[in-house]
Amino acid sequence: MATETTEAGSQAETTSQENFFLLMDSQWKPKEGQLTPDLESIVGVWPLDSEGNVGRFRSNPYYEPIDENSPTDPFDAGLRLLVDNRIEGPQLQLLLLDVLFDVAMNGDGRPLVAKSPDDVPCMVIATSERHRSRVASPDWRRMSVEQLVEVIPDDVELLFNPGGPAMVRLSAEFATSALELTPEQVEKAHDSFRDEDEGVHVLPWEVTETTGTDATDEGATPQKS
Known about the structure:
Layout (H helix, E strand, L loop, with lengths): L4 E3 L2 H7 E8 L17 E8 L8 E2 L14 H10 L5 H8 L4 E5 L7 E3 L5 E6 L2 H4 L6 E5 L1 H6 L6 E4 L6 E4 L1 H8 L3 H12 L26 E3 L2
Helix pairs in contact: 2-3, 3-6
């Protein structure tokens, strides 16, 4: 199985994004005198440009969860919460807009299409290296949701993290409708989740002079493996 991932526009983004915010494993504790975190304990990064704009989350291919039951990335966490009925579709759509995904390719430039457990043709999508390792694919391509919806074949849906603890099938329409949200609708959705008394809050990044940013990363057809 190929391990290399290509990313559309990655060269331009790499040159403009020089700083990163790290998402650490929640159970990681620095050792005495340790100034830098262990690479294996970094869940992933949000790139930060010179103007303080935060890019989309990228999973760390070397991340090793301290707890084997831990989510491997924010979207994986969202899928698990969806399976447990702890978040709803609109919250997951907000996460769709804020992360990059690894899409399985069949080797000739087209997405790999496979059947879901309920026999629906689906593009195969992984949210982290751990979920990629369960899929035999000759190639992978890292994409935003905007790029993803452009390559969905007709009558094909989206299967996230097949074989994982929270394998979920989403319709193409679900992803497309996330892109149709206006900035005002996205902000209103963030505000409504922030005001909830219970449940998971999905908050946008807020740049400050002292901390840089402040955010939380918690939060279809769910299919448990």
